[in-house]
Amino acid sequence: MPFRVDPTFYPSPRMAIEAPPERIAYVTAPSAEAVLGKKGAVPDALAVVDLDPGSPTYSQIIALPEVPNLGDELHHSGWNACSASLCPYAPHPHVERRYLLLPGLRSSRIYVFDTKPDPRNPKLVHTVEASEIAARSGYSRPHTLHCGPDGIYVCTLGAPNGEGPGGIFVMDCETFEVRGRWELDRGSQFLHYDFWWHLGYDTLISSEWGTPNMIEAGVNPELLLGKKYGHKLHIWDLRKRRHLQELDLGDEHQMALELRPAHNPTKAYGFVNSVVSVKDLSSSIWLWYRDGERFALRKVIEIPAEPASEADLPPLLKGFKAVPPLVTDINLSLDDRFLYVACWGTGELRQYDVSDPHQPKHTGVVQLGGIVRRAGHPRSGGPLTGAPQMVEVSRDGRRVYFTGALYTTWDDQFYPDGVKGWMVKVHANPQGGLALDPDFYVDFGPRRAHQVRLEGGDASSDSFCYP
Amino acid sequence: MSASWPWLTLALLGAYHGVNPGMGWLFAVALGLQEQSGRAVLRALLPIAIGHAAAIGLTVGLLAAGRASVPLDALAWITTALLVGFGLFKLIRPRHPRWVGMRVGAKDLVLWSFLMATAHGAGLMLLPVFLLGEDNPAPCHGASCHQAAGLSLNSVWSYLAAISLHTLAMLGTAALVAMVVYYKVGLSVLRRAWFDLDRIWALALILAGILGLVLRAS
User: Fold this and answer.
1) Is B93 in the A-facing interface, judged by CB distances under 8 Å?
2) CA-nearest residue of chain A to B97?
3) pLDDT digits (tens, 9 = 90+) for A5-53
4) Rounded CA separation A197/A186 (Å)
5) Interchain CB distance below 8 Å, A2 and B26
6) Residue in A closest to B198 by C-alpha
7) Range of the domain at A47
8) Do residues A182 and B98 touch, judged by C-beta distance below 8 A?
9) Assembly ipTM
10) Cα(B11)–Cα(A377) distance, rounded to whole angstroms?
11) DSSP 3-state assignment of A14?
12) What average pLDDT does range B204-213 have in this prediction?
C-alpha cells in the first residue's frame, strides 16, 4: 500500500494535462466468432499496446492475456480508482489506480485485471459473476463504468431476462463487492446506455440505447423505423440518487449514446451524440447545459448522410441510397476545447473546437475505413473495414487513438464482409487540425478492437472535483 | 508536570485535527474554488468546526456518563482498549467515506463534519486527556486562575471550555491551511504533500490509548 497519493491522481483537469505521455494502452479485444458461434472462436482478451515511440515494440501488442470463457464480448473498461478519489468530501488517500475492470457486455461477467506489479503484463485476479450482479442489483449486461468519489459506478443495459429497465449499480473499489442498485427513484427512466456526472453540481446524466433484447441480435429495422430506440437524456440528483428531469432529443433522433460532460467541475454542460435520424439518416451532437436550476438541450452539430450507390451498400441500407455517418462515439479533450466525433458509417474522425460549446467549429478530419469509402491506412496493406469508432484522447490532448469495431452483431450488419480489429493514432494540433500517424497501426489478428484505455488515465477515465 | 498540560495537549490535538484534509479544510477549499471566492472558503469552515465540536462533545459526554457508573480504573482500561482496537481496525481495513455531494449548505457541513470526526475517532483520541486531566489541582496564580475549576477537567464548564479550546485550535489551523492552499500554493500541493494521514491517524489513536494508561500508572 503506497504512503503517498497515487501519482496518476490529479486534483484538476488542468493539472492532469501536464501528465507525462502515456506509454501503453489497454484495449479490449473481443472475438466475434465466439459471439456468433462460428469456427475459429477464441476467448476475448485484453490487448496491451506499446505506445512509446522510442520502444522497439512500438505499435505492437506486447501482451494479450485471455479471459477463461468464450463469448463474453468485452467492450468498455475502467479503473477501480482515479482522480475522483481526491474529492474533498470523501478523500481516499490510500487507494490506487491499479485494477482495470472489463465488463462482458453479453456474459455480464466483470473481469478484474491487476496492472501491478507489471503494467506491461496485467493479470486476471478476480471475476465478478453475472449471478452476483443480478442478485445484488437486479441488473445485467454491464456496459460503461466510472470510478467515482465513493466507489465504482457501473451502468447496465437491462435485467437478466433481457428486458428493462437498465440502470446503475455501485461496487467497492478494492474488494469489488457489488454494493447494490444505485437508483432510489428512477422516475420515467427505462432505457439505458451511458452515464457520467457533473461532480461540482451533484448531477448525474444518463442516456438511452435499448434493452438487451432490442440490440443483441443486431439493429432491428422495425424498432428503428418505429423510433423505439432511446432518444432521451435523464438528469439525476447524484447525492439523493433520484431522477430529476428528462431531456428529449425528439424520437426521430434514435440512440442517444456517449455522454461527455465538461471536465471542469465548475462548468455544467456537455455533449451527447445521436446515432441516426430516421428522417434523413443524419447524425447529430447535442449540447446539454444548465438553464437556471434546470437543464436544457439543443442540437449543435448535424452531420448529413452521404449519397451512395446501392451496389456499395449493405442490405440494411440499400433502399436508402445513402451512407449514414453513424456517429457512435465522441470524446472531449481534458481542456474542454476539442470534441472528437467518430463517424463509423462514413469513415471519418472529426475534430470540432468547442471553446464556445454553443458554436462548435469544424477544425479537422481524418478519413479511414467507412462502409463505402473503405479508406486504407499506409500500413494496412489495402482498404479497411470498420471505421473510426471508440476514440480516446491523451491527457495532454496531443494524441488521439481509435479503434474500428462497434458491437459484433451490428458490425456484421453494416460491414457484411466482417470487421478487422485495428487501432490507429492521430496527432492533434493544439491549435486545431488532425494528422494520421502513418507509422502507428496495430493489427488485432483474429480479434476485434473496442475501447482504448491509456496508462495513468485519459480523457474519459477520470473525473475531478477541483477546477 | 505543569498543570496546563491537558489544555496544551487538547490545543495541539486540535491543530493536528485541523491539518488533516479529511477533517474539513480541503472541503472548504473545494467549495471556494467551485464558487471562485476566498470568502466561501472561510464561510464553510465555521459549520465544519461546529460539527467537529459536536462529535467531540458526544464522545466526552459518553465519558462523563461512564464516570458516573464505572470505576475510574476500569474506565481507563476501557478507553485504552477502545483506542487501540479502533486504531488497529483503521490500520487493517481502511474504510471509504461514503458521502457524495458538493452542493452543501451550512447544515450539511455540520453533519458532514460530525460524521467525519466521529468515523475517524477524533473524540476518542482526546479521552485520555480528559481522564488524566481530571485530578490536576492547579497552582492558582492571580489573574490566570480560573474561578472554581482551576485547570482541572472535573466539571461541565471545564469540559465545555476544553472542547471549545480544542475546536478553536482546530478551526484556526484549518483556516490557516485552507487560506495558504487557496491563495498561495494551490492544489498541486495535494499531489506532493498529501500523505496517507489515515494511517498516521490510526497510529495516533493507538499511541493515545497506550500513553493514557502509562501516564496514569506513573
Assistant:
1) no
2) A90
3) 899 999 999 999 999 999 999 999 999 999 998 988 999 999 999 999 9
4) 16
5) no
6) A93
7) 13-454
8) no
9) 0.91
10) 68
11) helix
12) 89
Q: Which position has the grid cell 440499400?
A: A318
Average pLDDT over residues B89-101: 80
3-state DSSP call for residue A393?
strand
Q: Do B100 and A265 touch (CB under 8 A)?
A: no
Q: Is the pLDDT of residue B50 over 80?
A: yes
CA–CA separation, B47 vs B3, rounded Å? 32
Q: At A373, is the pLDDT very low, low, confident or very high (cuts 50, 70, 90)?
A: very high
Peptide bond into A165 cis (omega under 30): yes
Q: Is B114 on the interface with A (CB under 8 A)?
A: no
Verify cis geometry, omega within 30 degrees of 0, for the bond prior to A117: yes
What does the alpha-carbon distance between residue A98 and residue A11 come to, in Å, rounded to a whole number? 18
pLDDT at res. B145: 46
Beta-carbon separation of A466 and B98 below 8 A: no
Question: Which is nearest to A331 in space by CA: A449, A452, A156?
Answer: A452
Q: Which residues of A are less than 8 Å from B102 in CB distance? A: 87, 89, 199-202, 265, 465
Q: Find out whether B135 and B143 touch, Cβ atoms under 8 Å.
A: no
**pLDDT score of B90:** 85
User: Where exactly are the structural domains of chain B?
Assistant: 5-217
Does A75 fall in a domain? yes
A398 exposure class (CB count in 10 Å sphere: 0-12, 13-18, 19+): middle
Instruction: Quote the CA–CA distance of A126 and A29 in Å, as a whole number.
Output: 19
- Which cell numbers hold the place of A406? 462497434
Cell reading at A431: 491549435
Using a CB–CB cut-off of 8 Å, the residues of A that contact B are 1-5, 7, 9-12, 15, 86-95, 148-151, 172-173, 199-202, 238-239, 265-266, 465-467
Q: What stretch of H or E contains A441?
A: strand A434-443
Cβ contact, residue pair B99, A465, below 8 Å: no
Between the alpha carbon of residue A286 and those of residues A259, A283, A357, A398, the distances in Å are 10, 10, 10, 25
Place of cell 440512440: A255
- Phi, psi values for residue B14, rounded to 5°: -60, -45
User: Can you give the CATH number for the domain in which A436 is found?
Assistant: 2.130.10.10
C-beta atoms of A87 and B33 within 8 A? no
CB contact under 8 A, A5 and B191: yes
pLDDT of B150 higher than 80: no
Closest by Cα among A321, A327, A333, A331 to A348:
A327
How many angstroms away from the CA of B172 is the closest CA of chain A?
A: 19
CA–CA dist B173, B11 (Å, integer):
10
Give chain A's domain count.
1
DSSP for residue A417: T
Question: Residues of B numbered 173-202 whose beta carbons fall under 8 angstroms of chain A's beta carbons: which are they?
Answer: 187-188, 190-191, 194-199
Cβ atoms A201, B103 nearer than 8 A: yes
Flag if B22 and A91 touch (Cβ within 8 Å).
Answer: yes
Q: Which amino acid is at B153?
A: L
Residues 6+ apart with CB under 8 A from B159: B60, B64, B130, B153
| Residue A219, all three cell numbers | 439493429
**Which parts of chain B fold into alpha helices (H)?**
5-19, 25-35, 38-69, 72-92, 106-120, 122-132, 156-179, 188-193, 197-217
Reported as a single tens digit per residue, the pLDDT across A388-422 is 999 999 999 999 999 999 999 999 999 999 899 99
Give A198's strand partners: A203
Residues 6+ apart with CB under 8 A from A409: A35, A36, A215, A216, A217, A218
The set of cell numbers assigned to A305 is: 448522410
Residue with cell 441488473: A139
